[in-house]
Specification:
The protein is α+β, with helices and mostly antiparallel strands and 442 residues long. The chain has two domains: 351 residues, Up-down Bundle (Outer membrane efflux proteins (OEP)), CATH 1.20.1600; 78 residues, Outer membrane efflux proteins (OEP), CATH 2.20.200. The chain has ten helices and six strands, in the order αααββββααααββααα. The strands form two sheets. It has a four-stranded antiparallel β-sheet with strand order 1-4-5-6, with no helix packed on it. The protein has a two-stranded antiparallel ribbon with strand order 2-3. β2 and β3 form a beta hairpin.
């Protein structure tokens, strides 16, 4: 989907600072994430379906041999004599078999091609999942860091207000109520700080589980990063592309076709099989005491036909089973298409609404900062009380935190939208990475 793979993100210049960015973290995840490593192993295993199925169409060559120790007791009634020969019988045989008509083998060969395609689609889906999991874990750490910074700044401001309230009470310019209110806010801020520290540690460990080592300081989005709307900027093309190009849809399409071919394969259980069989070998054994050992060389070739007549109803039952599985796989394909369409709608709206939310919060942050300055000035001249300043300061920190979350959520929605149409790849990680500011790493 080349049109829908157009840039979602506006690039911006970044300075070179020693800090881990999203692209570095993603490449570390490629090397160390156990889930992705398991997907790579599954892909390697899936690719072997093709040569295995091809083997059913090619000749097979078997060499077998035997040696048997024989002890026989024979009584000849006419002569009233006995014979007890003891001897080895030896032999070997080379057998060549070439299938001429085995319809189930041809069907298996076609299924194998589809199984390889399914394995490729599942691996591509695992790669997209790795990008999304890594980006989400990365952004979770960034947000937890921003949240902790905001809470600490809020706590520091409250501490200043608490100290000011205590001094003003000592000189008699304010009541004890201002001091108690500031103390209550300070205690609450301390509890929130502890919870935020714990949350940050959990988020960092979640990222460590993906990349396999302790994450470095991470680069957050730049303050002047420009988020752009999706292109095309209408929902319908994204939904249509998701229904056709989503990797989950592609994998399910292969599964449905494999199941349909399985019906043909089980139906072939009623068909005859025709093989070309050739044998060559040698056999040595004792014919009789009078004749002695016979040494026989043999060669033969022929056509072997096998016609299945009745297997207790197993063939018919397997055919019905395959038909049921084919119906289920077709329903799974329809569910995958609907799920992909729903995801495209959801994440398209997430991007569009996220961009609007970011813009609104940027304006709200400017307003909150202006309101804080006004309240501080009013407090100095006596028209505002301490609680007014505390509320204004808290509003600034909450708005700043909400802006950071909205920015990160919008970036994730952009990535998930590309994944919904099967177009998410490392270039998209690079585009998001261009919006980060390593100089602001924490």
């Amino acid at each position: 989907m080349r049109t829908l793979s157009a840039l979602l993100f506006a690039p911006c210049l970044i300075t070179t600072v020693h800090a881990a960015d999203l692209l570095q973290i993603y490449r570390a995840a490629q090397d160390n994430d156990p889930t992705f490593a398991a997907a790579r192993g599954t892909l390697d295993a899936g690719r072997e379906k093709a040569p295995q199925a091809l083997a059913g169409l090619l000749p097979s060559l078997t060499l077998s041999g035997n040696t048997v120790w024989n002890e026989n007791d024979t009584t000849f009634r006419n002569t009233n004599t006995t014979s007890s020969p003891k001897f080895n019988s030896n032999g070997y045989q080379l057998t060549l078999s070439q299938p001429l008509f085995r319809w189930q083998n041809w069907v298996s060969h076609d299924q194998a091609k589809l199984q390889v395609a399914q394995a490729e689609a599942n691996f591509a889906l695992a790669r997209q999942d790795l990008i999304l999991r890594t980006a989400q874990a990365y952004f979770d750490v960034i947000y937890a860091t921003e949240n902790l910074k905001a809470l600490r700044a809020n706590k520091a401001a409250i501490a200043q207000q608490l100290e000011s309230a205590k001094k003003n009470f000592e000189v008699g310019t304010t009541t004890i109520t201002d001091t108690h209110e500031a103390q209550a806010r300070y205690d609450l801020a301390s509890a929130q700080e502890l919870a935020a520290e714990n949350d940050l540690e959990v988020r960092r460990r979640a990222l460590q589980a993906i990349i396999g080592n302790e994450p470095e300081a991470l680069a957050p989005p730049a303050h002047q990063a420009s988020l752009t709307p999706p292109e095309p900027n209408t929902m319908a093309p994204w939904v249509s592309a998701a229904e056709q190009d989503s990797l989950s849809v592609q994998a399910q399409q292969a599964a449905a076709e494999i199941a349909r071919r399985e019906v043909d394969k089980q139906r072939a259980g009623h068909y005859p099989t025709v093989d070309l069989v050739a044998n060559a070998g040698n056999s040595k054994t004792l014919a009789s005491a009078a004749i002695g050992v016979t040494d026989t060389d043999f060669k033969n070739a022929g056509i072997q036909i096998s016609i299945p007549l009745f297997q207790g109803g197993a063939t018919v039952s397997k055919q019905r089973e395959a038909a049921g599985n084919a119906m289920a796989a077709q329903s799974g394909l329809e569910a995958a298409r609907r799920g992909a369409a729903l995801a495209a709608r959801q994440y398209y709206l997430g991007v569009v609404n996220g961009l609007a939310q970011v813009k609104a919060l940027q304006a709200a942050l400017v307003s909150s900062q202006s309101a804080l300055e006004s309240n501080k000035l009013g407090y100095e001249v006596g028209v505002r009380i301490n609680i007014d300043v505390l509320n204004a300061e808290n509003q600034v920190y909450v708005t700043r935190r909400d802006l950071a979350k909205a920015t990160l959520d919008t970036l994730m929605a952009q990535l998930r939208l590309k994944a919904a149409v099967g177009a998410l790849g490392e270039p998209d990680v690079e585009q998001v990475n261009a919006l980060l500011d390593p100089s602001a790493a924490q």
